[in-house]
Amino acid sequence: MNSEKKKKAVALTYMNGIDQAPYVTAKGEGLIAEKIISQAEQHKIPIQEDPALVSMLGKLDLNQIIPPELYQTVAEIFAFIYNIDKQVGKNIPK
């Protein structure tokens, strides 16, 4: 038996002014999670590690918007990413 936990990943998308709320665009575990993380790294998308949040988001279907009870947590992550993008000089839509 393999005691090592499988890696899990969930990707969210949100376009301010277009989307009602962030929604799940990719999710998986094991090799799929590794591919999601690899794609994020290749595109210089910041990665936030939060196993509890990944577990909750992993229960959602693809293209499903996040439930209101996760808005605050996800908003904090998007704010974190926004600030990183701003610091490295990426163009951020207004």
UniProtKB/TrEMBL annotation:
Coiled coil, from the record: none
Cited InterPro entries: T3SS_substrate_exporter, T3SS_substrate_exporter_C
Gene3D superfamilies assigned: secretion proteins EscU (3.40.1690.10)
A GO-annotated cellular component: plasma membrane
Keyword Nuclease attached: no
Swiss-Prot/TrEMBL keywords: Cell projection, Cilium, Flagellum
GO biological process: protein secretion
PANTHER family: FLAGELLAR BIOSYNTHETIC PROTEIN FLHB
Name listed for the protein in its UniProt record: Flagellar biosynthesis protein
Protein's organism: Sporolactobacillus nakayamae
